[in-house]
Amino acid sequence: MSTRRRPLAQVRSDLRVAWYRSPVEPGILRELMRRSDRRGWLQAGGHLALFAVTGSLAYLCWVHQWWVVFAAAMFAHGTIGSFFRGLATHELNHGTVFSTRWLNKLFLYVYALLSWDNPFHHSASHRFHHRYTLHPAGDRETVLPVRPSLRLALMVQMFTVNLWGGRRSLGLGGLLPIILDTVLAAAGVIDGEWAAAVVADRAAAKRKSVWWSRLVLLFHGLVAAYAAWSGNWGLPLVISCFPFVANWWAYFVGLPMHAGLRNNVPDFRKCTRTITLDPFSEFIYWHMNWHTEHHMYSGVPCYNLAKLSREIADDMPAPRTLVQAWREMRRTWRRQRYDPSYQFDTPLPVTARPTPPRHDGLTEAIEGPVT
User: Fold this and answer.
1) Do the beta carbons of residue 102 and residue 108 sit within 8 Å?
2) Using CA atoms, how far apart are residues 101 and 115, in angstroms rounded to an integer?
3) Helix, strand, coil % over all residues of the chain, rounded to 5
4) Mean pLDDT across 314-320
5) pTM above 0.85, yes or no
6) Beta pairing partners, 363
7) What are the DSSP calls for 291-313, one per residue?
8) pLDDT bracket for residue 366 (50, 70, 90)
9) Distance CA 84, CA 93 (A)
10) Cα–Cα distance for residue pair 294/53, rounded to 1 Å
11) 74 vs 47, 126, 229, 243, CA distance in Å?
């Protein structure tokens, strides 16, 4: 049996990554880890409010048959909503957005329900991603190599209706398997090696995942049933179908997180990538452009990651722009086509501490709770 396919219970027992983290003065770190209901409402409530505005506009245009404006409104709606699944739900699953726990859960469930996400499966899976980032034996959320595709057929779909862009681009070709997985999970069947592995020895997580899948099907099924009864097909377009409309920006800013970087190295500076974005994009991306910082200290709320970045800047590689990140990924991918073993080794500044040698040891991750 390959290392990658070992039972995760055995991986947890055998694989202990001693991660390097850029040092932060304890008092400053405590302040950076402070959660705020006010900031949480601005982030989670603000993103949901934007979604409600674009959705209401799209629905109004549907009702009045203003088709050109409807297309533009759905483009905006899909762009805003494509950051729900795995991004809004990701940070809320860490439990760091609000200081009040039930608010974290409430918004998590709302975002997950709308975007066909399963927070209980994501929670089980994401623990391994943080603990074993790009260590293939324990992290199968991100499996390299990742192709940073700019194919014309894919780009047309990214900017319109994504019919078969696949799971990574959240197209219908990716959504249909997600729906199928949800149906199977609702029947108590966890499909796929990774999905089954993360709950294999966690009965409570599996049970919650199954019941959540049933709730998702019930919710979207009721939306579709109402549309069939009333003839009002604008509602399911706005409420249930937005994940595969205008995925373009989530694709462009989301792919650089890990693509082309090194695996099996205990240094987040080498296996994650921080990029700079404009303030609006950073907001709807939930500040995950500060991705190296997030992996180093995942207990720091997303809205404090920029401050954390300034604290440890001397020990970190310079953030890439989005264009620089894509050029880097594309160059890496082209070289990997004839040299599959190649991975980009992110250079560190002269002021940075060197990457520690790879060895097994206990992980002492500073992580926020995962629901």
Assistant:
1) no
2) 21
3) 60, 5, 40
4) 96
5) yes
6) none
7) HHHHHHBTTS-GGGHHHHHHHTG
8) very low
9) 12
10) 30
11) 16, 31, 23, 11
For the chain, percent of residues with pLDDT exceeding 90:
65
Q: Which two three-digit tokens encode residue 249?
A: 């920006």
Query: Nearest CA to 244 among 159, 321, 342?
Result: 159
For 227-311, where are the E strands, in sequence order?
275-276
Average pLDDT over every residue of 229-239:
94
* Token digits of residue 226: 């109402």
Q: How far apart are CA 71 and CA 346, in angstroms?
A: 41
Terminal CA-CA length for the chain = 32
User: Which DSSP symbol is given to 320?
Assistant: E
φ and ψ at 74, to 5 degrees?
-70, -35
Please give the backbone phi and psi of residue 102, each rounded to the nearest 5 degrees, phi first. Answer: -70, -25
Measured CA to CA, the distance from residue 204 to residue 200 in angstroms comes to 10
Read off the tokens for 92.
């809320």
Q: Which residue has the tokens 């970190």?
A: 316
Q: Quote the radius of gyration of the chain (alpha carbons, Å).
A: 21
